Amino acid sequence: MRRTISKATDTSIRLPFSSRNLSQTAGRMVSKSPFELKPKYADFQKVQASRPDFDPSLPITYSKTPDPAWKYGKGTSDPASLEKGHVEIDPSETGRPMISNYRLLVSGIPRPISFVSTVSKDGETQNLAPMSYFQIMDHDPPTFVIGFSSRPDRPKDTMKNLEETGECVINVVSDHFVEAMNATSLDIPYGKSEWGLSGLNVAPSKTVKPGRVKEAVFSIEGKLLEMKSLDYHGAGKAGKPFGSMAIIEATRFWVREDAINEAKDEVDLSVLRPLVQLGGIQYGRIRETFELPRPSLAKELEDKSSGLTNFLEDI
Ligand SMILES: Cc1cc2nc3c(=O)[nH]c(=O)nc-3n(C[C@H](O)[C@H](O)[C@H](O)COP(=O)(O)O)c2cc1C
């Protein structure tokens, strides 16, 4: 279904989705990826059924830090970590499949998830897809990066739209719409919208054409500063696909009214309930936290008991 969004007040618009049109074109346009991930479980529904229900009411709690008595020079609170050796892995080793690096990296690096809304150049199709190769790079100006992996037949629609229009909305993923988010990762043909199949609602943006996810607690309107190709080794010349990185500057923030403080400078974690992506299909919710104030050099040097002067005698 094709529809543009009017820049109006914050009222939600539900986008209908034409599954008939999609199934007509899907067979033609879906190409088999040579990077197909093998499912982790033969029957995920069976595994899921054996697990306890998700409890959205569980509170966010605070504990002490792992080692409240830590002193400068002490290192780890788990000395046993030093007894283990490490396995060396060359990412470019001959015969190592690219998918092994994918699996290694996504299991070893927890990532926040950006849920990116874009619109096609002709303004006809709204696109929605999750991207967890994502981070904030700076707050002044508020700058973000999103990494797009290559796809054999065509670039990610999000990347194409972003490159052609220069606009997007980054929605932070909260646990209450994770299934809807996951559905939008379906590799549907370009020109088809994921909004309808997700069942999520679109709310109008102020500074960009793509709409926000109304259900999101925190959304960021953004404009593209730069799309960088990650083709440093001539993949393009060899006719192979390659990744890209978008650098985006925020032009507007939207925070749910019950999640923002009066000063408009803090999002309430207990409302945000953000998810992190861990492995390819594994997610983490934030349940237990602790606080660790950042040290100030002047104060730590003043406080003789801190022990910092033992390491910085000449300051
Ligand atoms: C949680 C999650 C995170 C993802 N992160 C990325 C990512 O960072 N980069 C990427 O290229 N694809 C990522 N994907 C896969 C894309 O969402 C998927 O390829 C999707 O079809 C792209 O949609 P598009 O073509 O409409 O942009 C992710 C998928 C999921 C479920």
From TrEMBL:
It holds the Pfam family Flavin_Reduct. InterPro entries: Flavin_Rdtase-like_dom, Split_barrel_FMN-bd. One of its GO terms (molecular function) is FMN binding. Signal peptide: none annotated. Its cofactor is FMN. It comes from the Eukaryota. Gene3D superfamilies: Electron Transport, Fmn-binding Protein, Chain A. This is Flavin reductase like domain-containing protein. The lineage of its organism: Eukaryota, Fungi, Dikarya, Ascomycota, Pezizomycotina.
